[in-house]
Amino acid sequence: MNIAMGIDFGGTKVLAGVVDLDSGKVLATAKKKTDAGDSADQMMSRLYDVVEEAAGKAKVAIADLRGIGVGLAGQVDTERGVLLGAPNLSQSTVDLPMAGLLTRRFKIPANLRNDVQVAAIGEAAFGAGRGHPDFICVFVGTGIGGAIVHNGALLSGAAGAAGEIGHMVIHANGRICGCGGRGHLEAYASRTAITKAVLGELKRGRQSVLSEVLAGVEDAPGGTAIRSGDLAKAVNAEDELALDIVHEAGRYLGYGLASAINLLNPARIILGGGVIEAVGQLFKVAERTARREALLTSAQSVSIVPTALGDNSGVVGAAMLNASNTVATI
Q: How far is residue 264's CA from residue 231's CA, in Å, rounded to a whole number?
């Protein structure tokens, strides 16, 4: 069987799936919640658990897998399979030899790469990037990540961190981002940023259905206080506060996309992630703003589309790290 395990490790959950590498079909999945305060040991324990559970559900032996691929929101050394660090994870995970630990545990090859770069690989092979040699992936969740595919190859950059649109400066001397920088897109349009904005407005006395969700919450650690589904329900109920903040986040996301359009002149932008999947208004506002703010010729030539693989983009892409026909890296 030509199958592999793909793992998408995000700010609020870790999702693993057994993937048919020939078709991109996800045969079975397993999911666990994550916590930004997890130690390295706790983080690895969750990974081991979802690998074993997904393999069990798919009724396959782990030894029969081509390998394990992991996509994780952070900076990674792909050659050594080491997590160098991530703004939304604890300091104990810095310089974590994740791929080596997985190989030692399961006795099969393991690979590690940035989560949105992995999602771009999945979309290129079986999703909205298929047949499109030039595109950008932008995923909005706990943070905001990006990846660039040019001439059919994933652009990695000098340190392997190309495409980090979430840390593009969109506001001089602006809000402090989770990474410590100022004015980054992630501090304005991620789920963490949206949660902090909602909390701030509630403290000022504004009314919202989200006040029930946030009862007793003082901060937004890891962006977990509001789930994407909670936000979607509030928007669908036409909650004024939720709509105001989602529209503001959408505008900022659009500014970031416009800058990327002007810099790279991509043929396609693929938008995904938990917030994009759940809240259609965010996509609409971001697209409208990006087209308005980008240079006219570039704005007219780009298509802005949602992911085709949805929540499975990262899982499929991570599994594809073990395939012979994966996207090349430059």
A: 32
Q: pTM for the whole thing?
A: 0.90
Q: Could you tell me if residue 65 is inside a domain? A: yes
- How far, in Å, CA of 22 to CA of 19, rounded? 9
pLDDT in tens, the chain (330 residues): 899 999 998 777 899 999 999 999 999 999 998 776 778 888 899 999 999 999 999 999 999 999 999 998 878 888 899 988 776 666 666 788 999 999 999 999 999 999 999 999 999 999 999 999 999 999 998 899 999 999 999 998 888 888 999 999 999 989 999 889 999 999 999 999 999 999 999 989 999 989 887 876 666 555 567 888 889 999 999 999 999 999 999 999 999 999 999 999 999 999 999 899 999 999 999 999 999 999 999 999 999 999 999 989 999 999 999 886 666 665
CA 270-250-221 angle, 5° bins: 95
Residues 6+ apart with CB under 8 A from 41: none
Q: What is the CATH number of the domain that holds 51?
A: 3.30.420.40
How are beta strands 26-33 and 110-114 bridged, if at all?
Answer: unpaired
101 and 149 share one domain: no
